[in-house]
Write a structure and sequence with these properties.
The chain has 477 residues and is an alpha/beta fold. It has 2 domains: 18-215, CinA-like (Maf protein); 246-473, Rossmann fold (3-Layer(aba) Sandwich). The protein is built from 17 helices and 16 strands. Helix 2 (43-50) links the parallel strand 1 and strand 2. Helix 11 packs antiparallel against helix 17 (460-469).
Length: 477
């Protein structure tokens, strides 16, 4: 079966279109399986019927559209458009194929089950347009199972266009699972072939099973953002991929942005201080606050191309602290705020150092906005977002820079005062004195220089990870 190259790896290679991909799958006599689609019609399997030779690929096609019928087949679920329902569909249909057909054609056939459960635009246009899609398959006959699951957000304004886009992504996924399972980065790159990110966004992808036993799921999350398939992606401290709408659902959110090279005591103290203040708000009291560490693509690319070992080092030290990680392409804070507010109606807070707050008022970052700095702050604080600001100590003079003595350009002082008076910007006065003298750049320099004093500046778990894996150019004595 011909194997298309990535448009990133070789721009000169002409990409095959959706029709050709579906036909290639149909003409591969090894592939045989089921398509089960709920919510937007049978948009994916339609391609395989349309191009011809579908009888050699499609064992069954179905759409259990009625909820009672769907429950009877796959079991009850809390929601119909959720990962739980998708997994039940994949497990049931794949097992059914193998049980029924393995004795007849198991030696020559690699079975698969494709499924999706989708909420396309409704008649009134009031629903969230998103869906779960996946494929469970054998890479070779009699092989153990492998699986790819992804979550899509459909951005077209018409239901017909959303259905069209969904069909194309589904064909790309099926074709990629068979032709590119040995090169998962190229597989990810191929998912939006024939589409653009203005039509559909993939904000979560997870590889599992024998074909992907060497795949680091965190790197695949990074790849989604790096390729522009999504503005952000998340993973847990365990490395498991997280889907934002499920992780943030109905929870207050507290985010700390940083380089985390490495995570230092001051990073955790900043989160602790902010969480104490944030949790006292009437809108937050008694609720579970989700705390997240965020790294931007700007930060990861600060020295040029992304260094994957450096990225994994940061991910591991954040994991050592038990923190979920958000990778985003939202350098401007107002874009981060808009992203978070899409997933929760609860309160949102961002904690930062006084130095970052100074940069927040630098007008050079808002030249692309018609309303400049005023528009950026209007967007940032639109949903009553709170900033919690950690003080900055001058290493030479020992003086503290806080919200009260921050040096702001004269023309912006009234705006700054207004935001402070409204409670949008809040000082953290519950800090630990011991943490004020810790700066991540200095800690990084000490690690590289072999100065063992760095170990007292980071959490013990972080020090162990750095030393055991020789991260950040650490060299044992």
């Amino acid at each position: 079966m011909p194997m298309p190259l990535s448009k990133q790896s070789n721009p000169a290679v002409e990409m095959i279109d959706t029709h050709q991909k579906a036909l290639q799958v149909n003409l591969d006599s090894r592939r045989y399986g089921t398509f089960a689609e709920i919510g937007a019609g049978q948009e994916v399997v339609r391609w395989f019927f349309r191009v011809g030779a579908g009888a050699g690929t499609i064992a069954k096609s179905m759409s259990a559209y009625d909820m009672t019928v769907s429950d009877a087949i796959y079991g009850r679920a809390k929601r119909y458009v959720c990962r739980e329902r998708l997994q039940a569909m994949l497990d049931y249909e794949h097992a059914l194929n193998i049980d029924r057909l393995k004795d007849v054609r198991g030696d020559t056939t690699a079975f698969f089950a494709f499924a999706d459960t989708v909420s396309a635009r409704n008649y009134r246009g009031t629903n969230e347009c998103h869906g779960w899609m996946g494929i469970k398959f054998q890479a070779h006959p009699r092989d153990d199972d492998s699986q790819i699951i992804l979550h899509v957000r459909m951005l077209d304004q018409e239901a017909a266009l959303q259905q069209e886009a969904l069909g194309i992504v589904g064909v790309n996924l099926v074709h990629g699972a068979f032709a590119l399972n040995h090169e998962p980065e190229l597989l990810v790159d191929s998912l939006l072939d024939g589409l653009s990110t203005s039509r559909i966004e993939i904000d979560m992808i997870e590889f599992s099973g024998i074909a992907f036993r060497h795949v680091d799921k965190r790197l695949m999350s990074l790849k989604l953002v790096e390729l522009g398939l999504s503005g952000a992606a998340m993973f847990a401290a365990s490395g498991e991929v997280l889907q934002p709408s499920e992780f943030f659902y109905r929870k207050p959110i507290l985010v700390e942005r940083g380089s985390f090279r490495p995570v230092c005591n001051v990073n955790l103290d900043m989160l602790r201080c902010a969480n104490e203040k944030f949790s006292q708000l009437p809108s937050v009291q008694g609720k579970e606050v989700v705390q997240v560490m965020e790294v931007t693509m700007n930060n990861l690319k600060a020295e040029g191309e992304i260094d994957l070992r450096d990225f994994l080092a940061r991910a591991d030290v954040m994991a050592a602290c038990g923190m979920p990680v958000l990778i985003s392409d939202y350098f401007q804070y107002y874009r981060l705020a808009a992203y978070l507010s899409h997933y929760t109606k609860e309160s949102i807070a961002i904690t930062m150092g006084a130095g970052s707050l100074i940069q927040l008022f630098d007008e050079k970052y808002y030249t692309g906005l018609a309303g400049g700095v005023l528009e950026s702050f209007g967007r940032l604080f639109k949903n009553d977002l709170k900033l919690y600001v950690y003080p900055l100590r001058d290493p030479e003079s020992g003086e503290l820079t806080t919200c009260d003595n921050l040096e702001i350009k004269s023309e912006l002082r009234q705006l700054y005062g207004y935001l402070k008076d409204r409670g949008c910007i809040n000082a953290l006065d519950n800090f630990s004195e011991d943490c004020l003298s810790i700066f991540s750049r200095e800690v990084l320099g000490k690690i590289k220089a072999g100065d063992e004093s760095w170990e007292s500046m980071v959490p013990g778990e972080v020090a162990e990870v750095i030393k055991s894996k020789n991260y950040f150019e650490y060299q044992p004595a």
